[in-house]
Each structure stands twice: as structure tokens, then as C-alpha cells.
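Support case: user asked for a sample of complex input and structure output to validate their parser. Sending the pair below.
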Amino acid sequence: MSAQVLPESFYDRDVVEVARALLGMRLVHRLDGQRVSGIILETEAYRGEADLACHARAGRTPRTTVMYGPPGRAYIYFTYGMHWLLNCVCQPEGFPAAVLLRAVAPLEGQEQMQARRAGQPPHLWSNGPGKLCQAFGITGALNGCSLSDPTGELFIEAGQPVPENMVKTMPRVGISSVPEPWLSMPWRFVAQSD
DNA sequence: AGCACGATTAACT
DNA sequence: GTTAATCGTGCTC
């Protein structure tokens, strides 16, 4: 019984819907022939050039090109001079939108995570967008790769969907200089732990 | 060519 | 609660 990898069509719809639907799914990175994986617990949606919090607000640039491509690809970028952040490209090709993966619960390959998150306790390995990329060994080398290819290095498998009463919705974080209404859009989704 | 700032994190007071 | 670390990106000159 092998887990089902989410197909491109999963991502080919409104990015806010996808951000909600990704909760409970499983992020997998094949690293040194070993699976490093975790259950997605927190996401944020970034939608189109009109969304002033979205990188695509500046239009199509070298960095944002991947977001304009087909759904189901990884959009990975570098920020604050030291952190990689992982997104899933959504909606039809030509419309720039992506879901930022903000937190996952460690599952497989915990020795790998421990090694990459030197000295930190397990609950702090992947509870942030920069932290999860570090724990999983994800870098810009994977930018643009398909997340729907089961033979690829990085993909997302179907998991246990999170029921509605276990999902909290709130404004996105880290975008404090963005004007309304974008600042308050409830496009951040968090799965409750209990 | 130069500059301000960022979808963050960890280590402070 | 505050702040340094650190550099690619996009904007201005």
C-alpha cells in the first residue's frame, strides 16, 4: 500500500481552497535515499498580482516566474539572507498564486531533521516556514520542480484530512507593511494539535 | 551601481 | 518585547 501523491489537479483551483485542503497532507523529501516527511499543520495563501502581500504584486520577474507556471510546482525562494521558504504553485498556468507551507509535524526521517536542526527539541524542528526547509534539507535547488511526481525528490501525499472544527483561520503573518484589505485577509490556516 | 527591505529565526533584555 | 544576522530582489538614479 503506497500513499497517493496529490495530482496536479489538486492544485488547479482557488489557492485559498488549496491552502485549507493541504492541512493533514504529507510533505515528503527524498534525501540520501531516505524519506523525510511530515504532516502539514499550517499554510498561507497568496493570490495574484492584486494581492499586495503576494510576490507577484510586482508582476512577472525572474523570481516570480514559477508562480505563473503550471500548478503543482514548488516555488522556493530565499529571504532575510538566510532562510529558504517552500510554496506550492496553484491555479491555472498564467495566474500567479501559491500556498506557503508554514509548519509540519515530523514523521519519517527524524534522525535527518535532528541532524539539521542542531540541538533543538523535536517540537521546534519544523514549526516555521524557514525551520521546515532547514529540517527537510529543502533549498532553491528544487525551485520549479513538480510536487505531483512520485518519482521526484519532493512531493506531497494524501493524508488524513483535518475536520472543519479542528481548523483555525487567521490573518497572514510577516506582512505588516501591506495595506488593507490584504493585511487582514483570513488566508492563514492552522490545524489544532489536540 | 547603489539602496532599502524582506511570506524569518534565535538570542537577547 | 527587541534586535542582529545576512543577501537576493526589485526599484531608483
